[in-house]
Amino acid sequence: MDSETKAIFLDMDGTILNHYNKVTNRTKEIIDKLRTEGLLVFIATGRSIEEIEGVVPEGFQVDGLITSNGMAGYVGEKVVFEHSLSRKLVETIIDKARENKVYYELFPYGFSRITLSQDRQFVIDEITDPKPESVGINEWLSRKQAIKGEIDWVESIVGEKFSKFYFFARTKEKINRWIDELDKLKGEMDFTTSTSSLHNVEVMVANVNKATGIKQMLNRFNVSHEKTLAIGDSNNDIQMLKFVHHSVAMKNAPDLIKDLADDVTEYTCDEDGVCHYLKQRFFNN
C-alpha cells in the first residue's frame, strides 16, 4: 500500500464519471475503502455543488468537495471557502454572450443555474439534434438535461453571489471565437477562464482554479503538499496536476495532460479507470 499519500483529489467528468455521467458503485466502494484505511478523499470538479448529487451513487461520501474549478469548498454542509463573480462582470458577460448568441448558464450560489428568458431561443438552438460528431456524448447529454429541467429561465439576474459561468458551442470555431472575445474582455475586467472540452469554456474569479482550492483544503485538514495525489483528464485539471506531489492522467485524457502527469491509468473512465488505479496503488497486496 502507498504509505506516502494522505490526501487524494479526484476530478469528475472524464475521470470518476463515465461518458454517460455516472459514478459506478465500484468507484464508490474503492473510495469507501480508502477512507476506512484513513486516507482523505476529495472531489475537485468544475461542477457546482448542485450538479454532483444526481451523478453519484446513493451513499456516496468523500471528505470534502472543491467545486466550480476552485470557486468553493465544502466539508459536509460547511462552507470552507467561497469566491464570487461580481455583479458587474456577470452583467457585462451576459450582454456580450447575447451579442454573439453564445449558449450560457450562470450559477448563483443557493439557486438553480439560470439563463435569461430573452436568450432562450439561441441557447436551445445550440443543442438541437443531431449531435455534432466532435461533441462528447457526456457534454451533449448534460446540455440536454439542463435545457429539459435544470436551467431556471428568468426575466432578470437572480442572486448576488455567483460561482461560475458555463458556455457551450456546437462548433469548435464558435467557441474559439467566444474565447477570443473573453480574452479581449480580460483587458478591461479581471477574471479566469478554463476549458474542459473542445466545445466549452467557463469563467471564474481571477487566479482561482482547482490548485488554489486544494491549497485551502490542505490547510483545513493540516496535510502537507508532499502527501497529495490527484487524478484528472482535461485542461481545467492542469493547475491541479502541476501542484500535487503525484499527478495521474486518465487513459482517455489528451496527450497534453498525459505528458505533464507522473502516471497514466491503464483504463479509461468508461472502464472504471480510477477504481483500477487506486486499487492497484493502494491495495495491490
Automatic annotation (TrEMBL):
PROSITE patterns in the cross-refs: COF_1, COF_2
GTP-binding keyword on record: no
Domain of life: Bacteria
Molecular function terms, GO-annotated: hydrolase activity
InterPro entries: Cof, HAD-SF_hydro_IIB
One Pfam family in the UniProt entry: Hydrolase_3
UniProt KW keywords: Hydrolase
Protein name as it appears in the record: Cof-type HAD-IIB family hydrolase
Organism: Evansella tamaricis
